[in-house]
């Protein structure tokens, strides 16, 4: 009776064997192949091997094992298998050094060098594994590595659904493919669609960039990463930020949405949507586009923006693009249909930074406004060139010419140059139009106020003389080769004739309509732009005023307010009209430097003119 003694001895040692370390045998060591049907047939009530029960997975088949011990332990039927153990269920194979097979549960617990293979395409290895044949799930723990033809995933633990062919982890994971690496706290992988979903602390590294965000979907076939939430990509040519979109790690093309931005050493470009090609150094932004120049505190806004970093060129159009340039406390606003900004190309430092605006240009800056057809802004020298019918307004002065220049120093207007058909018009307190024209003009400013205008060539002027700002005493008409006009608080104060003057004084009663206008006179007050017209409603950056809330009155207050007037008679008070403020006196012009002087004023009381 040697066989019963040997069997009971194995039963006595089985608890100790379960607690002992599983032996590991070399893969090339020949071991006997055990057929489970021949050694341990199905017990009464146990699922027959190879027969599938409705609603449950197929039985897990034991293929090979070096040694087998079976029995009923604490009411649980277990097979303990040692040495080169292998199982099969449908298209899935399980390999390990040792295992427990739970017969009535259709489950396997595998130990040491565990390997799961499905359809010869996906392999999972680990230190320990638990295989549920009915649920068709596998849980691997300890140095888990998952491989398919495209990726390799390393994680401390992994859950795998054999039916859906999906894997998930919750204890950090490291993904690698031939081009990229990715780390995250949690992950989900669908081997059918080859799509990964990563969450919490996502960090993607490509050969040319680095991505960080909280939620990311990554297609291992197309190599496209889809992200949600705040996302930052660091690249060689700049940094990208967005709160939604996708990034192709092969073509390096980003499609960003929601508060998208490109941050380069010199510029910050943003918009509602941003498409950027790192290989071509080309980007397109749409919706509330903003381009900020970090060097000269310049901001460009528009609806659509195109950025050619390789060419150093940015173009904005749509919705009347606006330029905003802040210099100390003075801000320049400029609007046009199209804005083009030129900067130095990568690797170049000599290219001038220039801004082009066209057509229908409008300017607003403190007490200086202007319009023209096209404009060039040399940001390096702080010179603005106005072309084709430019008009500038400063306080009550209007300047026109065929072309103009505005030169600034320390962020303030310092000088204006008017070329060809220069014309200056100013309004006095009686709404008379003082006019000066010439071939060219030079206008000088101090503290953003007009101080002097030099007329160079063919100078001609008409200037009204006032009596205490209440009446016009006559008009001075002067012709000269050159002329100088001096201003006080941006108001015309004095005219000085410099050479070859011809002057005359015309009394009010002798004035004719043709005498009151110089040839080429034109008043464009209605075209003077306002701040709202330049910025546009969508780009107005002023803080919105809060609407005053009406307080609810009580019923008693309403009754008091609506009491009949017969209770108390009131006599309305008569208020005398307030006198209108007396306008400030304007200094009369000095006599021209030449021998010709205007005739004396008549002794009669002058006739007021408006």
From TrEMBL:
Biased composition (Low complexity): 554-598
Region called Disordered, residue ranges: 522-610
Pfam families the record matches: OstA_2
Residues annotated as signal peptide: 1-20
Keywords: Signal
Compositional bias per record (Basic residues), positions renumbered to this chain: 544-553
Residues of the Organic solvent tolerance-like N-terminal domain: 78-214
Highest taxon of the lineage: Bacteria
Protein name as catalogued: Organic solvent tolerance-like N-terminal domain-containing protein
